[in-house]
Amino acid sequence: MPRRARTFRVALPAGAVPPALALLLSACAGPQRPATAERAGAPDSTPASPSAAGPAAAAVAPEAPPATRGRDAFAEGVRLQASGDLAAAVVAFDRAAATAPELVWASFDAGVLRERLGDDDGARAAYDRALDASPAFGPAAQNLARLELRRGRGEEAEKDLRARLERTPDAVGPRIGLAELHLGAGRLELAEEESRRALKADERNVAAMVSLATVYHRKKRHELAKMVLENARQVDGRDPSIWNRLGFVELALGNRPQALEDFRTAAALRPDYPEAHANYGAMLADAEDYAAAVSELELAARYAPRSAAIWLDLGNAYRGQKEFAKAEEAYRKAGDLDPGAVEVSFDLAVLYLDGDKPGLAAAARLEQAIAYFDAYEAKGGKDAKIAEYRKDAGRAIDREKKRLAREEKDRLRKEAEARKKAEESRKEAEAQARREAEESRVANEPAAGQHGGRRSTWRTTAPRNAAEEEQARRSEEAAKAPAPAPAALEAAPETAPAPAAAPETAPAPAPTAVPAAAPAPAAAAVPAVTPAPAGDAQAARAETPAGGPALPAPSASPGGTPGEERGDR
């Protein structure tokens, strides 16, 4: 999806409330600010232990001068602030300002920390104390003006500053504060007038020079603004506000690389100057160096946690790093700080359009993006690319729905194939189980298996041995038949009885001559065979009529074929 170019946050946009410019000057040297090095040679305020001091310890050590005690409290506030204990640091700064009112930086830092902690009324009181102690103290007047602009109390702040000017007409601080109020309200002519009056009273006042250069920049007189800022650099080249404003001027002149360098310089000069870090971070995000942008913008949010503009830019940097949850959280934080910020809805819409939110379907995410675009336009927001974004989202939703339909179809097909394969596997397993069961049964019944083998062999050879089996059966029946009864012999005198069958090993007696009669039918030679089963012989005997003559068995003689006619010897 296309990415919307971000608008850089300026210090005081025309007609808009500026973000907090918290000038935490606790690390800067200056003639108005005490340093811990100034305590060299000052008496130690800690009393000695009585046991170590001897007899003189009974006397109470003299109390340190207020200025010394104020510097000690101020140093403690700086240490506590560095450790992150802001509430304790505020207490130390307040104690330093109460002990030594001339330490205007103590009151100023107390006001800045109170703003970070959300105590706007306490911050306003701290800035007032600083101006009471030093009417020319410009930083306090500037922060007071910006604080009241954010709270919608610009008119009240202007009356207060003009009252101070009436009491001290030559004071530079109230005029610098008035210039800030006019810049915030877009009254450029009045802002220029107040800046010139401040410079007339103090021609080397850097804050007044930066205010005048800002007026020229707004009037698109960029070259003149750059010249004023170059003069300010000659006075104090380590003031980060000069480099920060130079960055905007170079951007207006079309020199982006130089603008990036100016913002980098401003950020490097003061880690606690949030405006410089915010602008430098926005430039880095626009250059798609998202990791560096996140580092700068997180630092800016640390020192200006109530700036909606900083949280918006931080959300963009998170979005560039594909950190959806952090980006959404930063955008919502900006919306909470400034409910009227229409850009929050736009940035959320782009986030849902481009990113992937874990646990949210793509189609639902795209529909939510369209809903955020609707909210942006409902709040009065306008952007020429929204129509294109809507079309992109609609096409993406259609593609997603088609993709889901394809996936569902593929899922059903794969499920059907899986069921079919499972059924085939089941059937194959059942068949294999049956085969194994049959093999196991056969293995456990060897006798039945052998019998089945003989039957198979008999069936195979049955046609070939049918005649032999029949002849063997008849021979066995004849051998087992009883001798004929006498009556039967008398009934057939002309028929000679057949000799008794002899064993195969004994020689048969020589046959006697028989009367001429009908020859016996020829029979094939019968080889020695396995006797037929007893059941077959019994069946043959059952077919002979009871009391009838038994059929003679064919004779067999060695040396010739049974049933052949022999001549008389």
Automatic annotation (TrEMBL):
It comes from the Bacteria. It holds the Pfam family TPR_2. The keyword Chloroplast does not apply. Residues 34-69, 408-569 are annotated as: Disordered. Residues 1-22 form the signal peptide. Residues 408-442, 466-479 have a biased composition (Basic and acidic residues). TPR repeats lie at residues 240-273, 308-341. SUPFAM superfamilies: TPR-like. Keywords: Repeat, Signal, TPR repeat. The keyword Protein transport does not apply. Coiled coil: none annotated. Residues 40-62, 480-505, 513-559 have a biased composition (Low complexity). InterPro entries: O-mannosyl-transferase_TMTC, TPR-like_helical_dom_sf, TPR_2, TPR_rpt. PANTHER family: PROTEIN O-MANNOSYL-TRANSFERASE TMTC4, PTHR44227. This is Tetratricopeptide repeat protein.
